[in-house]
Amino acid sequence: MYTFRKLTKEDAEQYWNLRLEGLKNHPDAFGHSFDDEQQTPLREVQEGLEGEPDSDEVWLGMFDGDTLFGFGQVKPYELSRESHKAMISGVYVSPEYRGGTGRALMEALIEEAKKLPDVEQVILAVLSGNEAAQNLYESLGFEVYAEDPDSVKLEDGTYRDDIWMKKYV
């Protein structure tokens, strides 16, 4: 059985190892690269998990006992004219835990977004070629509203588009 909870700076090392695993093993699923991210000091990771003092940003972790195996971020838009939107990003589930847990994690992230004041829309971006993620998001009610061609250039020289998706909550 798994549980959810907000990540804190005490989770930083476990979170960072899992994030680097995702970036290394699935480089075509993320905008960030393993090479860029692996140099980040743990202190910065801890600060990132804590968020800004007055922010409603949440990093949600999915645990098997004390073992973190999945995570994602919900962050409200900051501008007053965009306060009706929140972004889900950085979603990852370790391969050995896949098979329904990604859906559960996304459902939990959507519920976190619904708790934010004034949020009416949840936005996310998925890289082209990541059909499993895009299919999951569509099954949860997200719809494509824009594409950014050649948004990310991978280390092998190929490009991926950012596919922007939205769900009204």
TrEMBL record:
Keyword field contains Acyltransferase: yes
Signal peptide: none
UniProt KW keywords: Acyltransferase, Transferase
InterPro entries referenced in this protein's UniProt entry, alphabetically: Acyl_CoA_acyltransferase, Bact_Acetyltransf, GNAT_dom
Keyword Kinase listed: no
Residue ranges of the TM segments: none
Residue ranges occupied by any N-acetyltransferase domain in the UniProt entry: 2-169
Alphabetized GO MF terms: acyltransferase activity, transferring groups other than amino-acyl groups
PANTHER family linked to this entry: AMINOALKYLPHOSPHONATE N-ACETYLTRANSFERASE-RELATED-RELATED
Protein name, entry field: GCN5 family acetyltransferase
Organism: Exiguobacterium indicum
